[in-house]
Amino acid sequence: MNTPRTTPGASAATPASPVSPASAATPASPAPAVMPASPMTTASPATAPVPATTSAPATRSPDALVASDLDRTLIYSSAALALTAPDAEAPRLLCVEIYQGKPLSYVTEAAAGLLGELARTAAFMPVTTRTREQYRRIRLPCPPPRYAICANGGHLLVDGESDPDWRAAVAARLADECASLDEVRAHLLAAADPAWLLKERVAEDLFAYLVVERALLPDGWLEELAAWAGTRGWTVSLQGRKVYAVPKPLTKSAAVREVARRTGARTVLAAGDSLLDADLLLAADRAWRPAHGELADADWRAGNVEVLPDRGVEAGEEILRRFLAAARGPGVVG
């Protein structure tokens, strides 16, 4: 796996590059035995049957690790679908997440088939800022991934359970290098105006975020908040209607490096769309980002990152095609 590269083209609103903790900071622990894969239930708004992609994976190459963001990278809410074709020509959709009894997130039917094939070809690992509870609502049309990363790297799931050694190492580093969550959360609330603040949340006792009316944010407010947080070991980013405050050492790339170490992966492939995905993309050998999202808005680029022309749910489908082609490339036995 390559070392991080520089990131030309970040806008002034983009927070300082995340700091990725070295994998040596994590106590080495043997990977547990693989549990038998079982099909995951999916609900679909379409009448067509779910593609037959949920059988147990064939023997996979240990060389390739596919680490992908989920929301607005592989899965999409109704508001993020960005379908432009006439309704009669729109792709059929498969629902992969239910929230409060209603469908929430989707992939195209073609993407479902590609994901199943990818899971049989390489080690597929979801990497998300979602909490564990939010992640567990998702039912991807493939066998349950052995590894998953939640809370922006704060939790490393192994066969669905948080690895205690990883969690302890993360907690120790945050305590040593960053201001406390309580201090940052108090400042966030004090700096927010009730006129545009909708909600305030803490995720997994690791980081905080505000849900805001984005159009009402005062000019310069985000930059001022980022400067304050930066001196205390935290980063700030605006993603959609959410203002995230995240400790600098809490990164997706650090957890991906740990999984690559455990699995012996020699190639890491990655995809993401947000500022919190930047360190993940930089740490990969090859990476892709769609033409939408916070990275696209900032025109963020790097030498190992390919910018796709696709937007919305069809970008998710194209990302899976790129993953599958790369995983089947030289040095990877399908």
Q: Would you identify the regions where 5 or more consecutive residues have pLDDT less than 50?
A: 1-61
The strand line-up of the biggest sheet is: 5-1-13-14-15
Percentage of residues in DSSP E strands: 15-25%
Distance between the termini: 20 Å
Let me know the average pLDDT.
85
Provide the helix percentage: 25-40%
List strands and helices in order, with pairings.
Layout: E1 64-68, E2 76-77, E3 93-99, E4 102-108, H1 109-121, E5 123-126, H2 132-135, E6 147-150, E7 155-158, E8 161-162, H3 164-177, H4 181-191, E9 197-203, E10 207-212, H5 221-230, E11 234-239, E12 242-247, H6 252-263, E13 267-271, H7 278-283, E14 286-289, H8 294-297, E15 305-307, H9 313-327
Parallel strand pairs: 1-5, 1-13, 13-14, 14-15
Antiparallel strand pairs: 2-4, 3-4, 6-7, 7-8, 9-10, 10-12, 11-12
Task: Explain this structure.
There is one protein chain. The protein is α/β, with parallel strands linked by helices and 334 residues long. The protein is built from 9 helices and 15 strands. The strands form 4 sheets. Strands 5-1-13-14-15 form a 5-stranded parallel beta sheet, with helices on both faces. α1 (109-121) packs parallel to α9. It is globular, with a radius of gyration of 19 Å. Mean pLDDT is 85; it is low at 1-61.
